[in-house]
């Protein structure tokens, strides 16, 4: 599961970096063409806008995975451990419901706009609304994983090499306590 998470994060980060690089090249290239050659690429603004949408939604997925969204946890930190888990689980369920609404709306908008084409590029607007589908699925997977992590803690023994033994165990096994 950890390898899948690392691959997923790396893939999304690469897609974000690629989107940002393409946006930069298109915008700078268009500015240079307009001011130096008095012409421009007609579709560059539209593609840049689409890439910005993709970048924003992918960034939201990574921010959720890294727990970097804004939160006010002043009260939550003062609650007892069990109540904190229940409140955290309830908030995850609320977020899953909101993601269901995003997914449902994105599916409806994607189906409705399959035949609608972007004016400059001719790209189906279904691709743009489909980003909401991918985002809601990606975020739901992360939230379901977080829900399991909230209520199910598994202690896995770690094997350490003989040079870094922190206890006097002859096997080097150490139980991780959470």
TrEMBL record:
<dbReference type="InterPro" id="IPR055348">
    <property type="entry name" value="DctQ"/>
</dbReference>
<keyword id="KW-1003">Cell membrane</keyword>
<feature type="transmembrane region" description="Helical">
    <location>
        <begin position="123"/>
        <end position="148"/>
    </location>
</feature>
<keyword id="KW-0997">Cell inner membrane</keyword>
<comment type="similarity">
    <text>Belongs to the TRAP transporter small permease family.</text>
</comment>
<feature type="transmembrane region" description="Helical">
    <location>
        <begin position="12"/>
        <end position="35"/>
    </location>
</feature>
<keyword id="KW-1133">Transmembrane helix</keyword>
<feature type="domain" description="Tripartite ATP-independent periplasmic transporters DctQ component">
    <location>
        <begin position="23"/>
        <end position="150"/>
    </location>
</feature>
<feature type="transmembrane region" description="Helical">
    <location>
        <begin position="47"/>
        <end position="65"/>
    </location>
</feature>
<dbReference type="GO" id="GO:0015740">
    <property type="term" value="P:C4-dicarboxylate transport"/>
</dbReference>
<dbReference type="GO" id="GO:0005886">
    <property type="term" value="C:plasma membrane"/>
</dbReference>
<keyword id="KW-0813">Transport</keyword>
<keyword id="KW-0812">Transmembrane</keyword>
<dbReference type="Pfam" id="PF04290">
    <property type="entry name" value="DctQ"/>
</dbReference>
<feature type="transmembrane region" description="Helical">
    <location>
        <begin position="86"/>
        <end position="103"/>
    </location>
</feature>
<protein>
    <submittedName>
        <fullName>TRAP transporter small permease</fullName>
    </submittedName>
</protein>
<dbReference type="GO" id="GO:0022857">
    <property type="term" value="F:transmembrane transporter activity"/>
</dbReference>
<dbReference type="InterPro" id="IPR007387">
    <property type="entry name" value="TRAP_DctQ"/>
</dbReference>
<keyword id="KW-0472">Membrane</keyword>
